[in-house]
Input
Amino acid sequence: MKRTGISDLPLHLGKAPPWLFQRMKKLAGGITEAIVLEYGQDEFLRRLSDPYWFQAFACVLGFDWHSSGTTTTATGALKEAVNPEIVGIAFAGGKGKASRKTPSEIFSFAEKFSLSSKQIEGMQYSSRMSAKVDNTAIQDGYQLYHHFFVFTEKGKWVVVQQGMNPKNKYARRYHWLSENVASFVEEPHTGIACDSRTERTLDMTARKSSESRKASVDIVKDTKDFSRFASRQAMLGDFFGQEPKILHMPRTHFILNMGKRDLETLKRAHELQPENYENLLGIHGVGPKTVRSLALISEVIYGAQPSWEDPVKFSFAHGGKDGIPYPVDKPAYDRSIEILRTGIEQARLGQKERMGAIRRLGNFY
Output
């Protein structure tokens, strides 16, 4: 699995004015068709999965490049402007209530593409799990409110979804790409963009959390009575692992506080006997609190510490001119510009619109 990035954006309320959105739709449709014709469907999906390119794309469409509305407006323009039967790419989901229509929209468009039942079920599962991971396995304080699923007539897909944090007034965007699928729950990021990071984020997708994931599954499968972990301070006896001579003490002092519903969820998970962490995460009712509780219990019993580092990295995808955090990848940088510029130049647009889009692209880069 390649989830390709995360972006932090100021949370702005309201929506794009009709006159702007109509122009954005025209640009989005024309540029998309040109890119697909020139570079193919797969390349267009790769570009959408790149948070920096996506930001540039929204800028070219004419939307305020640094706000949370970039995501919802640009994806909305794509969904309304692009004809799946012409480009062989379908767009499902969206903001709020529209996101809940994603499974049915996937089914509807996939049938038109003559995709198999297995492919349809696979994409619906990918849609559901990408949201579950970003809402539950990574606990960064951002609650998802926008989920956008894009897929080709061959069944390849990309997810662009966004969460909001009402405390710091920022939104965070998550990008997923289906190429080279390996795992939903370990190191799914290939490029993460952000201007800030949280001080303490439970990241169960980190490679550092692999032992914690394994221990969480073992605890669920082997424990019949979870009440001994609920609503009280951890006791000294809880800190012993399977070998009684080994005492594991966590660095931090904490109190577990699981209610009746949490215990029922864990009991249900025990009855289902999940084979791995992905199966555990996919169980209905397993949410952030369950994941967090299991991570803490795993540390207490097995000494398996999860990662508490925010997985976000930097706001620029191509490196820095001074080599920090790494040297600029000139070929990748030039290709990003080339693909978007080619799309603009070859789109069926008026000269004024074309020049305006190229000027905005230049300003962004």
Notes: The longest strand covers residues 143-152. Confidence is low (pLDDT under 50) at residues 232-245, 315-322. Residues 207-302 form one domain. The chain has 13 helices and nine strands.
